[in-house]
Amino acid sequence: MAAPTPPSSGSSAPVDERTAGFEREALVHLDALYRVALRLSGNAADADDLVQETMLKAFRAWDQYEPGTNAKGWLLTILRHTFINEYRRRARHPESVDLDAIEPFAVFENIQEEDPQGRFFDQIVDDEVLRAIDALPEQFREAIVLSDVEGLSYEEIARVIGVPLGTVKSRLFRARRVLQRNLYKYAVDMGYIKGSRT
Amino acid sequence: MNCRDAVEHLYEFLDKELTPAIEREVRDHLEECQPCLEHFDFEQAFLKFLQARCRARSAPPELKRKILHELFDG
Question: Check: CATH 1.20.140.160 for A99-189?
């Protein structure tokens, strides 16, 4: 990676430090931001713009960031706000789904005889999993991406999304169950498993 | 703890988000309940599979260059 050229004007030491700090603590999360942006926006062009805008906003607000605290969470919060305020209208999922009406369905109960260890999952390729995630209602998609794709803790997710911890737990539970059901149905359709007649 | 309670705490257990006391209760239940143990193993396999499929992607190099340029050369 090319070293940034410090601006020549002004007292350069604090500016250099600021730049170096931003590179060290924020830019290292670029891949994570991109993955989340891609899943939220649903296309590479918007994801590019969203990440650029997030990094710019973050750089401008860098003085508000407390060094050594959770930079990834801080950046994801900015990214999420930017997405909601500027991109969501254009995103593919303007749906309003009654999430509570979605029945959590336990795949395991349907498959414990045939494939209790879930070996059929191994046959499902990356793109198919991503497609299935993209097809989830936004609140579910967000929970899955922050947890399973980016590995945030429940508390970090609660802070990024701005909801109570209990909401994160129940949302993630339902999100995973719905995703699992959809991947299971896909695997049955593809003939990876027989599945049970429902 | 019964099967229903154990399954309710399933993901919290696998995500290591439970308090030590409740985690202990789940663990005790799993030691004596084979069906729940298999269910937990299945869900763990599912989470591992999800993570393996999704975590590898990185941002395009072109995007990195653009951002570096915008932030530091602009």
Answer: no
Chain A residues within an 8 Å CB radius of B42? 107-108, 111-112, 116-118
State whether residue A187 sits within 8 Å of chain B by CB.
no
3-class state of residue A149 by DSSP: helix
Quote ipTM for the complex: 0.90
Q: How far is A95 from chain B (nearest CA, A)?
A: 24
d(CA A131, CA A44): 14
- What is the domain partition of chain B in residue ranges? 3-72
Cα separation of the two ends of chain A:
54
Partner B contacted by A129 (CB < 8 A): yes
Per-residue pLDDT tens digits for A79-123: 999 999 887 766 555 455 666 666 667 799 888 888 999 999 999
pTM to 2 decimal places: 0.85
Q: Which residues of A touch B5 (CB under 8 A)?
A: none
Q: Provide the residue ranges of all domains of chain A, joining segments of one domain with +.
A: 14-90, 99-189
Query: CATH code for A14-90?
Result: 1.10.1740.10
Q: Between B43, B54, B68, which is nearest A149 by CB?
A: B54
- CA angle at A150 for the pair A149 and A152, rounded to the nearest 5°: 125
